[in-house]
Amino acid sequence: SNEKAFEISEYYNTKNIAQVLKKEKENDMFYNDLTNKKYNEYHQFGKIKGKIIVEGQNSPIDLACYRKHTYGNLDWNLINNNMSFVACDKKNNYLFDMISLPSISIVEASAVKEGKQERIKSINNKYERQLILKGAAPENLNILFNLENEENVGVHAKKVDDIKYSLQDGEYAIIIGVAEFLINGKNYRGIFELGYNKDRNRWFNGK
What we know:
Structural class: mainly beta
Largest sheet: 10 strands, antiparallel
Shape: globular
Helix content: under 10%
Oligomer: single chain
Strand content: over 45%
């Protein structure tokens, strides 16, 4: 890859997180949620070149690519729901990541890249209820967020295909798929991930 790998917490908007935490009740569950993060999540953008051979047919590829890997112990049952997407072309990349925990209303651990890293300043949270469709990925999704450089980013995602599987003996369901993205008028292709706790009462976290 021609891009360096980065740990997702490097691009947390600490001001946003502090504002969220300020509103929460301080109790044992709250502190347990904050201290139970025993993993690190690394992301990397880049380019991939080569060829694919299918039934003797050679097809050269020259594409934007992305990979991530988590190290450590992640308790999926700790999470209410999560959502992330990555959209790429050969010049620009976007990464968005959101997680909801039992005692923390919503924490946006978000990074965006378009030539350089930019943190998310604020987000239109109306998108959240678009995600909860009986535990299935929505066909379309719209998100609007604002970067620290004051640029507004409008995202429209259209699902192409997805697969669903469960983790920790069914405690948590993950849906991963391919989507087409329209971001500020430009077309991208990428992937999305949605996750749901098996306890549906936790999906909205009391909202």
